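Aggregate trends can hide what the representation actually does to any particular protein. This step matters because it turns folding into a mapping between discrete strings. For completeness, the protein is quoted in full, as a sequence line and a line of structure tokens:
=====
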Amino acid sequence: MEGKAETLVMKPNDDELLSKQRMKQEAAATAEKEDVQVQCNDTITEQEMNKIELMRALVKKQDPSSKDIDDYDLRRFLLARDLDIEKSTSMFLKYLKWRQSFVPKGSISVCEIPNEIAQNKMFMQGVDKEGCPIAVVFGSRHIQNKLGGLDEFKRFIVFALDKLCARTSPGREKFTIIGDLQGFGYCNSDVRAYLTALSIVQDCYPERLGKVLLVNVPYLFCTLWKILYPFIDNKTKKKIMFVENKRLTATLLQDIDENQLPETYGGKLQLVPIQDA
């Protein structure tokens, strides 16, 4: 066998040359997918830029301490308010005030959220076909945090969202969430925490959420969903998708390549805890 293999290497036939060519093409495609999260494909339009400059002037006038404001940051708030400059400016100024008071050091550290981290409920790995980072959240692992209270849960949400945002790039700013509700029960129905997370995402991280894929959804979750639904804005509602159990892997593969999908859903990536990602 070894001699035969040596002969094939020394005198490759046409099939082998085609095979090697395909391997090179596949390797190049894989490398491109791995680098996709740092590429930009969403440019700011002239109309948006005009509104951004007007909004920037208003923000600086009302908050002189704000400087080096990113165009894409301003555009996200503009898009969240349908390009209404006054509403967008008001929203952004509230965000700046909240950020300065809630995250005075600029970031949340792991030592500030020990009880939330201990629940081991959120992971991050891979990117979808649009290059957006993917997070997986296991709903059955969330239990009301009585030790750290709601404040620690808020810090955890900001910690996780900042981690996801750090994986994005200008023009490619959204992320995808897989919400796994297998085993979800009454003890996980922490309405106050979920409404808090929803508020932070919608008010402080507008236009960051690309898609939410809810999988392994039990009937019990329908009751909680009816409570949460009225608090979800219309734009966010359109981004939430309930995945049928019998089509779970096939549905996820529509948005995520197999080599970027977690093993637990039929892919090839291992899940990495959010704090280690």
Observations:
- The beta strands are 122-127, 133-138, 175-180, 209-215, 240-242.
- Confidence is low (pLDDT under 50) at residues 1-40.
- The chain has eleven helices and five strands.
- The first strand starts at residue 122 and ends at 127.
